Amino acid sequence: MCTSNTVGQIEARASQEMNRFLQRTLGRGASNVTATLCKDVLFVHLRDVLTTGEKCLAGRGTVHEADGGAMVREVRNTLVRRSREELVSTLTGVVGRTAVAVFHDLDPTTGDEVIAFLFP
Fold first, then answer.
1. pTM of the predicted model, to two decimals?
2. Can you say whether the dihedral through the CA atoms of 39, 86, 26, 103 is positive or negative?
3. Distance between CA atoms of 31 and 48, rounded to whole angstroms?
4. Residue 60, φ and ψ in degrees, nearest 5
5. What is residue 109's predicted lDDT score, i.e. its pLDDT?
6. Which pLDDT belongs to residue 64?
7. 101-107 β-sheet, strand order
8. In this predicted structure, what is the pLDDT of residue 26?
9. 24 torsion bin: left (phi>0), alpha (psi -120 to 50), beta (else)
10. Alpha-carbon gap, residue 88 to 98, rounded angstroms
11. Whether the Cβ atoms of residue 70 and residue 54 lie closer than 8 Å to each other
12. Structure confidence at residue 2 (pLDDT)
């Protein structure tokens, strides 16, 4: 961890950087982003992340909700996998250590997304 920054400053900056990442890659950010640094893991919780198209595809409350939700989840997982280097590089500058693993999941029903970064 950077000695010049407090945990709160690191968490705030990580939240900002993750929202900027969403804005660059999807055209809109989350309505709320919370980052929590716990020892060697940074958890980022993004609320209300779905774009209008993703909400339509997820088809909340329709018979196609399961299929559409699975497609939205798959696309988001692919996006995180392909952007892994960019995300790790960005957070290395924030946290001061390089993440060795990135975990991701999305709930297409609620629009909540969680990304966890594991540091050595």
1. 0.87
2. negative
3. 6
4. -50, 125
5. 87
6. 58
7. 32-38, 41-47, 112-118, 101-107
8. 87
9. alpha
10. 7
11. no
12. 44
Residue 98 · residue 1 · CB < 8 Å: no
In sequence order, what DSSP letters do the residues of 48-83 get, joined into one string? S---HHHHHHHTTTSTTHHHHHHHHHHHHHHHHHHT
- The rounded Cα 120 to chain-centroid distance in angstroms is 20
Give the helix/strand (H/E) hosting 29. Answer: none
What single-letter amino acid sits at 19? N
Q: Could you count the other beta carbons within 10 Å of the beta carbon of residue 101? A: 12
Three-state DSSP at 84 gives helix
- As a residue count, the chain comes to 120
The series of mean pLDDT values per 10 residues for the chain, 120 residues long, is 77 96 90 96 96 84 70 92 94 94 94 95
Per-position b or e across 13-50, b if 16+ CB within 10 A of its CB: bbbebbbebbeeebeebbeebbbebeeeebbbbbeebb
The Cα 65–Cα 107 span in angstroms is: 12
At residue 32, the 3 state secondary structure works out as strand
